Amino acid sequence: MPKSPDQPAGRLIVPPRQQNYEEAAAKALPAVRRQPAEQLQWFGARPDGGRWATPVLDDVLTVGLDGGVVCDSTGRVVGPWWRVLLLHYLSIAGRPEEQAPSVTFADLPGGRSYASVYQQRVIERLCRTVGRDKETLRKAGQALGCRVLGRFAAGASGRAPSSGGELEMEFWVFPRVRLGLAWYGGDEELGPSATLLLPGNIESFFWLEDVVVLSERLISRLAGGRF
């Protein structure tokens, strides 16, 4: 998921379906180990018996810094994608500003060239599954702890404009990272559509490749998938 050292700036390397998540986790873990406790706490993590626990959507994921194993609140080891996302989140050296979700993936530097594939893997998947019906999507979102909004809430950078969706939700995927989802009902000819909104500085938290995976994983959880 991380960019290779020779990757041109602003260019997205499409994340393959079969990716070496173990290698990505191994690269991120030393950076997490070097973090001061105050930095991990600033990102919303708390010490928990030799591990660090971080709220993620509707659960709390814990990571042991010895082997980097990440478990959910039941003790089940999470999938490799959530493991890498959590390690990348906790490895950030700075303290990026928390911003309201206000831009699409295509608005991000380097995102436009991959926008059509992102649309298929994220938005169209949502609308084929849990997003086929407004009330089904609302219930799924509320089960993940979302806020159902008339317009997206203000962050440190100010209020994001309403998308005008029939259903608008906001998710705290990580304590410092919120995503917004706007759903639009279809008609007899056109099916439903949706827009996933990201903080304008999302790349201060995650690589562009991570943003794709994060978006896919949110849709998977909405559709009933596990961590």
Quick structural overview:
This protein is an alpha+beta fold and 227 residues long. Helices cover 30% and strands 20% of the residues.
- Quickly give the structural class: alpha+beta
Let me know the largest β-sheet: 5 strands, antiparallel
How far is the first residue's CA from the last residue's CA? 18 Å
Mean pLDDT: 88
Rough shape?
A: globular
**Contiguous uncertain segments of 5+ residues:** 1-18, 153-161
Strand order of the largest sheet: 5-9-8-7-6
Secondary-structure blueprint of this entry?
Elements: H1 21-33, H2 37-42, E1 46-48, E2 51-56, E3 59-64, E4 70-71, H3 80-90, E5 101-103, H4 115-128, H5 134-143, E6 147-149, E7 167-174, E8 177-184, E9 193-199, H6 208-222
Describe this structure in words.
- The protein is of the alpha+beta class.
- The chain folds into 2 domains: 21-90, no CATH class; 101-222, no CATH class.
- 30% of the residues lie in helices and 20% in strands.
- The chain is built from 6 helices and 9 strands, in the order ααββββαβααββββα.
- The strands form 2 sheets. Strands 5-9-8-7-6 form a 5-stranded antiparallel β-sheet, with helices on one face. The chain has a 4-stranded antiparallel β-sheet with strand order 1-2-3-4.
- A hairpin with an 8-residue loop joins strand 8 (177-184) and strand 9 (193-199).
- The longest helix is centred in the last third of the chain and has 15 residues, at 208-222.
- It is globular.
- The two termini are 18 Å apart.
- The model is unreliable at 1-18 and 153-161 (pLDDT under 50).
